[in-house]
Write a structure and sequence with these properties.
333 residues; alpha/beta; 26% strand
Amino acid sequence: MSYIEASLIETQQITISNHHTDLGIDNIRQEVIQGLSSKQKYISSKYFYNDKGSKLFEEITQLPEYYPTRTEKSILKKIAPELMSNIKDIDIVELGSGDCSKINILLKSIKEENLKSINYIPVDVSLSAIQNSADRLIELYPNLSIKGLVADFINQFDILPNDKKRMFCFLGSTLGNFTEEISHKFLRELSLNMNKGDSFLLGIDLVKPLQVLHDAYNDSRNVTANFNKNILSVINELIESDFNETDFDHKAFFNKEKSRIEMHLIAKLDVVVSSPFSQSKIIINKGENIHTENSHKYSQEKIQSIKEYTNLNIQQIYTDKNNWFSLILFNKL
């Protein structure tokens, strides 16, 4: 996650460009310190994903308690043959791409003779995640062209290619990490950037029994706790601070009023943190929390409302037998 040094990785079929530098490291540091200086302290969930954070999240997706990944994959496997059978001459743009296990399900269903006409464009905050995925996919699909973009896709729509028909994929219910205001803004901007004939496959986590939700974010092996605490290491690198992960406990709970899981770090003692980029010490009192993530859970009514403020047409809604997760296929008319 480099916001300072521009980098370009280029091989015969893989190009990865870093657009983090476009955001400006000073702006990033200001954003972080502002969050830690607020009355309700917060750190954006986009800072989870350094190398260690990406590996921890991959481990989370394998946990028996964590239903979203396996449920979404089961839907993808069911719909991929029909959805992808006639795909060709298109850019597949995956926002928040992470590891390649989900997009691989879709690519596997593209006819081999059509793969050479496809550009796969993973967009993620983590360079290592894109690079590892690209290396794996090229082994599986030697004719595929991969053009990775290391970027904050919420704020950098202008870097997305726009010279071919596109299929946008935003999987894993990452949309649920945004506040309602930001999710609406993101979807409206995505719609404005889509051309007639473009499609958009969106993964959304649904409301479900409380115990299922609780267990998914409070696993028995504490992998999620370690993932949550690791965000402090990322912040230490960004603002040269001296957070100690052991000073905090992981807490995740369902906020029924806002229909979301919230993740927090709770200070176990009075914490004083220094950073050369902050005018004053960052003080976190014992029992005070840093809000690190939301994961909103959607109703079918809320899914239907997306078309009202985006002008996107819902072509199909896919779900699993338990109605725990949905994939929605939109298109731009």
